[in-house]
Amino acid sequence: QKSSLERNINDQQSPIACIKISPSHQKRMKCHIFCFFLLAASAGSASASVKQLTKDNIEEAIAGKAAFVKVFRSNCAKCVEFAPVWEELAKYYTNDPKYIIAEVNCSSQKEFCEDLDIVSFPSLQYNHYGDYADIWDAYEGPLELGALKKFTEESVSLQCSVKYQVWCSDEQIELIKKIKAMSNDELSKRIEEMDAALETIFEEAEVKIDTAQDLVDVTREELYSAKAAGDASREESAKTAMERAKRLLDDAEANFDFILDDDQGIELGLMEEIAAMKGISSRMDDLGFDGDEMDGFNGHEMDGFDVDGMDDFGSME
Q: Considering the entire predicted model, what is its pTM?
């Protein structure tokens, strides 16, 4: 029995063509249509190991888990090619409750993907703190299975927290017990002391990120301008400057991550978390860790650009 699509084609009433279709073209047209829909369907994963995320279920799905998420479009050829690799990665972690390998289809979740601010596909995103609203980073490495497994083991993990202690070492769990045993006054005093000690370090690290990000933006604009002007020499200089700026940004971000992951930084985070549970006010906002600012941090919406930081890049007139 013919499908409705086949009947439309044979009756020359195809909704995608308003011209007469000769019999010699009917088979080819059916094949093209079939292949298009096959391509669209295969960009996503057919494996139950890959969790399908939507705006409605993502918060519950990734709570307390290290999430590695593929964001794709159904009509993306590269997404289709990559889909089997992602399925294999998901199967590898199927029995590990600490991880979730998932995907978001932007063809059907357009509004959700606008919130994620994804511009190229497939895009691989991973989180650090076990909640949807917290910081996400983009994976930019090779798409081979071995490289993805290695990266997941080394980098896709959550920081120890009171809420998700499965990610804490034995020493950190003991530290949580000690902090919980502190009186409110003792806890507040200890937080203030650590705040004072770490505040300058965080501020200096943030300034380095600010400066490096602005350098990347300036050099990228110069590169676009040079290309538009057809100036090959100027374009080459801009490329070199942008590469150097990106290395500075990578170094600055790595330094910031090191500070966050440092034992003192983790201890302060645990104390702040327990203080919040006890209803004790803290100076966390003064360090720039309020929710709104942290949500924008991955996009590096920075101000306070240090013009002196441009000296290494020469004149970009």
A: 0.57
